[in-house]
């Protein structure tokens, strides 16, 4: 699994747009990484005739199942899509072997994940799938010693930081916010973080001041549980560096319990179904081959399986 980092780990909060002019997959991958878009870089490393793909062919697989580039025909592409989505959500990098049914001639590769695809017209493929994930992004609000210590420690951990609060909204894909202004813009920073849907917010304040500040905001119960005050784990911290350590420890605990914050959430996973003809797991997308049978919607790896199923119904 590749974590994309910068030097220093500071995020440009200005939105950038990728142009649609033709460019190499490798160039596009670098652009996506700079924009903190999670994806899987798929590269064909071995191919057997009559496969339509060749070593060196590559593609990008997004978290919603979209594929840009070329790593084989429709059936091979569907196998890549399914494996890539698993890699993107925690399985890590893998070597995928896509074999036609009954193929015994393709030399084995230890450690590879094997998919037997009965729809393949022939040929076998090995494709390396590398998930490229941005490091967790923490927005730091304030210029106090504790805020500066949080920035320094986040860099040591390999996390990215941004500094747009309280003047503007948090950067896109922010996983946590640390409000450490000691009264300077704290209310505005908290409100902006809540409105942006940031899941984890640390408020650096005494127990008494923190409670008063949160009461003034008139928070809903759902908003209140996202704010941690006093900030950090109780480790007896006294110095700014020790307090920053306790805050980052609590953020790490949150990140590791639910997965690294990114643009790929836990509720936006594409729906998957099983092709009733070949048994392949397919990702349901607007362009996925499908057939309505009564009140049931069936999904297929490609037009071939769909048409075969429909022919069986008609006979």
UniProtKB/TrEMBL annotation:
Matching entries from Pfam families are given as: XdhC_C, XdhC_CoxI
Residue runs in coiled coils = none
Q: Which residues form the XdhC- CoxI domain?
A: 33-97
Q: Which residues cross the membrane?
A: none
Limits of the XdhC Rossmann domain: 140-251
Q: Which PANTHER family match?
A: ALDEHYDE OXIDOREDUCTASE MOLYBDENUM COFACTOR ASSEMBLY PROTEIN, MOLYBDENUM COFACTOR INSERTION CHAPERONE PAOD
**Protein name per the record:** XdhC family protein
Query: Which species is this UniProt entry from?
Result: Streptomyces triticagri
Read off the lineage from the record.
Bacteria, Bacillati, Actinomycetota, Actinomycetes, Kitasatosporales
């Amino acid at each position: 699994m590749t974590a994309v980092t910068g030097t220093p780990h500071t995020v440009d909060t200005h939105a950038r747009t990728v142009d649609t002019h033709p460019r190499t997959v490798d160039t596009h991958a670098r652009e996506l990484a700079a924009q903190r878009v999670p994806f899987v870089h798929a590269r064909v490393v071995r191919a057997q005739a009559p496969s339509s793909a060749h070593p060196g062919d590559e593609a990008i697989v997004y978290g919603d199942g979209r594929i840009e580039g070329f790593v084989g025909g429709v059936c091979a592409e569907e196998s890549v899509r399914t494996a890539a989505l698993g890699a993107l959500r925690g399985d890590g990098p893998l070597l995928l072997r896509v074999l036609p049914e009954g193929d015994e001639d393709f030399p084995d590769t230890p450690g590879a994940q094997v998919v037997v695809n009965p729809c393949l017209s022939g040929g076998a493929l090995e494709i390396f799938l590398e998930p490229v994930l941005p490091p967790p992004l923490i927005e730091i609000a304030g210029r106090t010693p504790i805020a500066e210590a949080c920035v320094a420690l986040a860099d040591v951990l390999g996390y990215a930081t941004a500094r747009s609060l309280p003047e503007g909204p948090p950067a896109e894909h922010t996983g946590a916010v640390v409000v450490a202004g000691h009264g300077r813009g704290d209310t505005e920073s908290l409100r902006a973080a809540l409105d942006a849907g940031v899941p984890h917010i640390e408020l650096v304040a005494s127990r008494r001041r923190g409670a008063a500040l949160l009461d003034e905001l008139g928070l809903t119960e759902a908003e209140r549980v996202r704010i941690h005050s006093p900030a950090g784990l109780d480790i007896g911290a006294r110095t700014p560096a020790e307090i920053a350590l306790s805050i980052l420890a609590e953020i790490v605990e949150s990140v590791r319990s639910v997965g690294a914050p990114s643009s790929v959430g836990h509720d936006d996973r594409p729906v998957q179904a099983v092709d009733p003809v070949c048994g392949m797991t397919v990702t349901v997308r607007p362009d996925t081959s499908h057939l309505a049978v009564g009140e049931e919607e069936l999904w297929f790896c490609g037009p071939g399986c769909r048409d075969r199923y429909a022919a069986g119904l008609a006979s």
